[in-house]
Amino acid sequence: MRRSICDIAADAHFEAQATGRQVLFSGEGESLIQARAELLYRAFENVIRNGLKYTAAGTAVEVQAERRAAPNRLRVTILDRGPGIPESDLQAVFKPFFRSETGAATAGFGLGLAIARRAIEAHGGNIRALNREGGGLCIEIALPTD
């Protein structure tokens, strides 16, 4: 069974509505990736659900997918409207068990982004975190496509 990023976003959106949040997906066309589908599914699900944990009520997590022609890459951006992360922690959030001192009280063990990074890198891609202008976090994921 093929699952797309759009499918993951739709599932998360359905669940997010109960907490006054949304997940909005934008993207066109398809990109095929030679992958262990379950690993990538978990990676995207972890990042999207992590965004939902931190985004403010009444806001949305935005998931944007676009194909880049040179080089052949799929770029997925996940943007939330949470507290963001101190600049000094932007790389550390991908380490197992790391919890940033953002003041946001959320459940978890600090493994979601570490799992996502390992899965993305295992497929020849990369992942990075940036603070979003106006507040929130931006996670950028790039993967090679066929």
Labels describing this entry:
28% helix; 146 residues; alpha+beta; globular; five-stranded mixed sheet; single chain; Heat Shock Protein 90
Describe, in short, the structure shown.
The chain has 146 residues and is an alpha+beta fold. Helices cover 28% and strands 25% of the residues. Strands 1-2-3-5-4 form a five-stranded mixed β-sheet, covered by helices on one side.
Describe the fold and architecture.
The protein is an alpha+beta fold and 146 residues long. It is 28% helix and 25% strand. The chain has three helices and five strands; from the N terminus they run αβαββαββ. The protein has a five-stranded mixed beta sheet, covered by helices on one side. Strand 2 (60-68) and strand 3 form a beta hairpin. Helix 1 (5-16) packs parallel to helix 2 and helix 2 (37-54) runs antiparallel to helix 3 (112-122). The radius of gyration is 14 Å and the shape is globular. 32% of the residues are buried. The mean pLDDT is 88.
In the CATH classification, which architecture applies?
2-Layer Sandwich
The CATH topology turns out to be Heat Shock Protein 90
Quaternary state of this entry equals single chain
The fourth-level CATH homologous superfamily is Histidine kinase-like ATPase, C-terminal domain
- Sheet with the most strands, sense and barrel status: 5 strands, mixed
Number of domains: 1
Strand share of the residues? 15-25%
Shape type: globular
